[in-house]
From TrEMBL:
Residues 12-305 form the FERM domain. Keywords: Cell junction, Cell membrane, Cell projection, Coiled coil, Cytoplasm, Cytoskeleton, Membrane. This is FERM domain-containing protein. GO terms for biological process: anatomical structure formation involved in morphogenesis; compound eye photoreceptor development; epithelial structure maintenance; intracellular protein localization; pole plasm assembly; regulation of cell population proliferation; regulation of developmental process; RNA localization. The gene is Dwil\GK25866.
């Protein structure tokens, strides 16, 4: 009978949540876990069901996986109080060793992509900041398709959750700065389909240390607290403070049997000479989960190393055919897109050329109009220049006449100056003669003064003699009177000579441009120069003035060519991606807030400095013997 109940008897209402949808079913009370699981797989179109399981919260608030062989109602599932539904989550329970080789269906890849992405964003899987940016660019590619500069708008990525909170809190960077770095990676991605982008995302994510690891707290015989990591390839043992780097590891091909008795777990190894690997867990529920995960991962590990079943071969063949068909359609689409882009580009170039020619015609028309205006301007300028030349010639003649007049005036002034200099020289000579004559007259005056004094003395003597003579006799009176008259005339002549005065002559001249001629001032000015220039202007204008039919061999050839091109692209870009990650790490390093670093960040930095990664660490751990690894675990 069908496990689904009728509408009249809905005893088991079930709601199953996947990462991109919610499903609701009504089950009959007798429906088993396998019935519900198969129903979900058929509904979403999933055939690779062995990786997945249904997770729920039991009545004791423990997270559990639905058992396939038991009835749903018998598994202590907590009924949701608000809507009376049994709530399940459809999760990947087991992880592949290599996603590119094992995952076949697109729906499988998509579900893994959504779960791993959510685990990274919720920080259940630690991811370095630079790798987070790279993965975010692939997530954007999945959401929006290949980068298109026409449809992309700034701030378009700011609304979504693209980076773990631990990354954004660790750096002092704005959302715009993070968006710019994500956009840079996004632009560099090769145009790919959604499933190809999701596969690239998963191939990067599977290299993370915590990818595909289920952690459980355990202790060894020394009661040292450790972490047990159940993975697709084996069991890893981690230090309590370090979930990134395992202390030791045991692969599934080394393990024969796993069992537990209450809190004690016993791992029997293939090598009979090696003692059992024993650890302890404090919770019975956790012990059951460990055993269930060990059994499932061990089965898948051994299954991978066997030839594929007919079902898997059929799935791979169908997936390959579907992939080839899509590649051919994609190549055809790309070819048509390129032709369309080429046609649009040619149309754009023709429109641009037409616009350019129209601009050239407009420029030529403007240039022609300007040339006509320039021609008229030149005619006007020519007329003005002729008038200016005539005016200049008139001015030149006037200036020449004026210069001749000034030259004649200057020559006249020079002659007058020469005459004045001659007159000055004559005056100086006359003054000199007058001075000499004045000196002579002064000498004569002195001589006359002396003679006058002598005459006075003679007069006194004569007077005395006269008096003596008068006293002596009247007889000689007539002779005395004659003598007195002679003396008086001599005195009068001396007085006239003493009263003579000599006039002084003062002359002045100048050797400067200012010359005094006959009481009038004449200023000689320098003739001025006439400067004439020709201001001409010129204007120079530059003007420049289907359907495709492919055979089977061609399809196979195209497919092989695309695969080889893709592998070549991956090989070339691998080192480039590492270099870009290193560059991005260096770019954001100055913005790091050291106190916001988590323990995982510190451990990851130590790994980088030591040059270690997930695979090199596991390879180093596996190099030792099983016995040595068991002994190392017991001594922790």
């Amino acid at each position: 009978m069908s496990p689904f109940g009728s509408k009249k008897n809905r005893s088991l209402p079930v709601r199953v949540s996947t990462f991109d949808s919610e499903l609701e079913f009504d089950l009959e009370p007798r429906a088993s876990g396998q019935d519900l699981f198969d129903l979900v797989c058929r509904t979403i179109g999933l055939r690779e069901s062995w990786y997945f399981g249904l997770q729920y919260v039991d009545t004791r608030s423990n997270v559990s996986w639905l058992k396939m062989d038991k009835k749903v109602k018998d598994q202590r599932i907590e009924l949701h109080a608000n809507n009376n539904f049994y709530i399940f989550s459809f999760y990947a329970k087991y992880f592949p060793e290599n996603v590119s080789e094992e995952l076949i269906q697109e729906i499988t890849q998509h579900l893994f992509f959504l779960q791993v992405k959510q685990s990274i964003l919720s920080m259940d899987i630690y991811c370095r900041p630079e790798a987070s940016v790279l993965l975010a660019s692939y997530a954007v590619h999945v959401q929006y398709g290949p980068y298109d500069y026409e449809s992309y708008k700034d701030g378009m990525l700011a609304g979504g959750e693209l980076l773990p909170k631990g990354v954004t809190d660790q750096y002092q960077m704005t959302p715009e700065m993070w968006e710019e770095r994500i956009k840079t990676w996004y632009m560099d991605h090769e145009p790919m389909t959604r499933d190809e982008v999701e596969m690239e995302y998963l191939k990067i994510a599977q290299d993370l240390d915590m990818y595909g690891v289920n952690y459980f707290p355990i202790t060894n015989k020394n009661k040292t607290k450790l972490w047990l990591g159940v993975t697709a390839v084996g069991l890893n043992i981690y230090d309590e403070r370090d979930k990134l780097t395992p202390k030791t590891t045991f692969q599934w091909n080394e393990i024969r049997h796993v069992s537990f008795d209450d809190k004690k777990f016993t791992i029997r190894l293939v090598d009979a000479k090696v003692s059992n690997f024993i650890f302890y867990s404090q919770d019975l529920h956790i012990n059951k989960m460990i055993l269930d995960l060990c059994k499932g991962n061990h089965d898948l590990y051994m299954r991978r190393r066997k030839p594929d079943t007919m079902e898997i071969q059929q799935m791979k063949a169908q997936a390959k055919e579907e992939k080839q068909r899509r590649q051919i359609e994609r190549k055809k689409f790309i070819r048509e897109k390129k032709l369309r882009e080429k046609a649009e580009h040619e149309r754009y170039e023709l429109e641009k050329r037409l616009e350019h020619l129209q601009d050239e015609m407009r420029m030529a028309s403007d240039a022609l109009r300007r040339s006509e205006e320039t021609k008229e301007l030149y005619f006007e300028k020519s007329r003005v220049n002729e008038e200016q030349m005539q005016l200049t010639e008139c001015k030149a003649n006037h200036f020449k006449t004026e210069m001749d007049r000034l030259r004649e005036r200057q020559m006249k002034i020079e002659r007058e100056k020469h005459d004045l200099e001659k007159k000055i020289r004559d005056a100086d000579f006359y003054v000199h003669q007058l001075t000499v004559e004045n000196d002579k007259r002064e000498a004569e005056t002195e001589k006359l003064k002396k003679e006058l004094i002598c005459a006075k003395m003679a007069e006194r003597e004569a007077t005395a003699r006269l008096l003596n003579f008068l006293n002596s006799g009247r007889k000689s009176s007539t002779d005395s009177l004659l003598t007195a008259s002679t003396v008086s005339n001599a005195v009068n002549n001396a007085s006239s000579i003493a009263a003579i005065s000599t006039p002084s002559l003062t002359t002045s001249s100048s050797t400067n441009d200012m010359v005094t001629v006959g009481g009038a001032d004449l200023t000689i000015t320098h003739p001025y120069h006439l400067v004439m220039g020709d201001n001409s202007s010129g204007i120079s204008d530059d003007f420049e003035p289907k359907e495709f039919i492919l055979t089977g061999n061609e399809m196979e050839q195209i497919t092989n060519e695309m695969e080889s091109n893709h592998l070549e692209y991956l090989r070339k870009t691998k080192n480039q991606v590492q270099n870009q990650l290193q560059t991005l790490r260096s770019e954001i390093a100055p913005h790091k807030i050291e106190e916001n670093q988590s323990n995982f960040d510190i451990l990851s930095e130590a790994q980088i400095k030591a040059g270690e990664n997930k695979y090199s660490t596991l390879k180093k751990l596996k190099s030792g013997s099983t016995k040595a690894r068991v002994a190392f675990f017991e001594e922790l």
